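Q: Convert this sequence to structure tokens.
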Amino acid sequence: MFSHVMVGSNDLARSKTFYDALFAALGARAGMQDDKGRVLYMHDGALFMITAPIDGQPACHANGGTIGFRMSGPEQADAWHRAGVEHGGTAIEEAPGVRTTPFGGLYLAYLRDPDGNKLCGAYRVPA
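A:
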């Protein structure tokens, strides 16, 4: 459905520390920096990147936007959430847990990264 996700950051080193810990909880390797200074993560067929805004303006989060990451189960979602909070993220919404939706149960964990981007760890609970 998508080729990649990129978020802006006002402090790439801080963001790399945060996302390295977050993605380690998913079994991914630490991010690598390209020749333009962007930090890239490749895992499970997906590409996630962090960059300083190319227009020179401060980075800001999208109001109403959420970036969802697929989890293998509630334990991984909890580890992901914990890693985020321990590395500069902020727990938001309800505590991690099952939410009932018209599509069935979802185990969800929400964070804001150090730049305010809204993230969700999501696991679809088997019917």
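Helices lie at 12-24, 74-86.
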